[in-house]
Amino acid sequence: MGDSETRRFVDSETRTHESTNVRVYEHTRLLAVVEYDGTDYLGFQVQAQGPTVQGEIERALAAVTQEKIRVVGAGRTDAGVHAQGQVIAFSTAWRHPVEELQRALNAVLPEDIVVRELRPVARGFHPRFDAASREYRYTIYNQPLRSPLARRFAYHFSQPLDVPAMNEAASSLVGSHDFASFGRAPQGDNTVREVYRARWTETEPFVYFDIVANAFLYRMVRSLVGTLLLVGTGELSPAEFEGILRSADRSRAGQAAPAHGLCLMKVNYSEDS
């Protein structure tokens, strides 16, 4: 952030009370891009018991700002799921340059969480409701023997995979569909989502599944991966996979793939967010 932008940030959060001539600090809305290793957390969202990513961030904010701050995330990643580009937002009366807040937060956060970007946004910004799309990646270590170095971030799958067949099946996901076969709605009962891209790529020894959609159902990506792996091993044909999608019947899909292979890569917003 340049000097002029920093000045705008500082100016936007201060005003002078006309009757007392006392400087009053207003709350400013900030957006943060956060990366974390979710292995040791019970997910992003704060819970009554157990460590969460949100809980650690809020503790760090309290220590640095001396405020009780509640953060809101773009995605409620499950226990063990990672993020490279989780987006959060919060309001604070912090009155120093935003770069100093970012440095201070990273100094007190655990080593498996880092704030990669921090900037002011409009007061009404909501990282979840204002998101235009979300990008997830699932990583598979596709080798006969496991890799101790890859075990935290990649699912070890020892059977050979037919990646072209998996891509043929994944192509049926693109567009607006009822994805009830692969998850449940986090709120309400609307299970229709629009997928913009769904593709497998192979870079030995890893196989990656990248998917972009306007939003996702609970455990949708992991359920898709678990069922697409059945295509990769020949247990399902691409046509049978498409039939499962059309059925909107969760009992027909495969088991959800393990959490540790999944990563929230990026959350996209319109230019005016």
Point out poorly predicted stretches.
Answer: 1-25
- CATH fold naming of the largest domain: Alpha-Beta Plaits
Beta-strand level of the residues, as a percent range?
25-35%
By CATH, the architecture of the largest domain is named 2-Layer Sandwich
Number of helices: 6
Number-wise, the strands total 12
- The helix/strand order is HEEEHEEHEEEHEEEHHE
Percent of residues in helices: 10-25%
Sketch the major β-sheet: 10 strands, mixed
Integer average pLDDT: 91
CATH H-level superfamily title of the largest domain: Pseudouridine synthase I, catalytic domain, C-terminal subdomain
- Amino- and carboxy-terminal Cα gap: 17 Å
CATH class of the largest domain: Alpha Beta
**Integer count of domains:** 2
Q: What is the radius of gyration?
A: 21 Å
Secondary-structure-derived class:
alpha+beta
